[in-house]
Amino acid sequence: MKKVKKAIAGLVICVLLVVLGVLLVQRLFPMRYMDEIERYAQTYDLPVELVCAVIHTESRFRSEVQSAAGAVGLMQIMQITADWGAVELAVPDYRFDRMVEPALNIQIGCWYLRRLIDQYGVEETALAAYNAGSGNVSNWLAEARYSADGRNLNEIPFGETARYVEKVARNRQIYRILLAVRERLPQSLGGI
Q1: By the 8 A CB rule, do 79 and 100 touch?
Q2: CA-CA distance, 95 to 153, in Å (whole number)?
Q3: 67 φ/ψ sector (left φ>0, alpha ψ -120 to 50, else beta)
Q4: Burial of 124 (C-beta count, 10 Å sphere; 0-12/13-18/19+)
Q5: Alpha carbon distances (Å) from 151 to 17, 52, 80, 112, 143
Q6: Which of 31, 41, 68, 116 is the most exposed place for a label (fewest CB within 10 A)?
Q7: Which residue is catalytic, options 36, 38, 49, 58?
Q8: Is-catalytic flag, 123?
């Protein structure tokens, strides 16, 4: 009888640790707005884990956040980019104050990220441009000390941008794992 009680207690402890682990992961690496993320990732041919990683790095999935520089929303879109995207995408009833709306922010953010990837042909370079601006990145690519081939950045001269690209890469790996786990969990368990 003691062995059965110990086994049950051990099982209960294991279940509690798993539940606490899942809750901690959900807190540290949220996966909100997944319908919108999956829709616009597919629309703009982007990996879902990349979009999640950019959102996590930019805003930690907080839709109402605004940076000191004026970037807004989940994907931290600047007004000039939002205005351009809204025209290109023919967004009805567009106003910049709508960029706190998750669906619109994700749509324009994914559109812009796809444009940068197409422009530079290298995802890491595109991410540097997403953070530092394409003018800065184009200048860096033209300088031999930063780029040997005009496509890849050997060095990113802005420390903030270098750290940003590293964070997105690290967060992307985490979201790749979380999305794989989420696909394998039955919906009845609520996923991650």
Answers
A1: no
A2: 35
A3: beta
A4: middle
A5: 46, 25, 25, 18, 11
A6: 68
A7: 58
A8: no
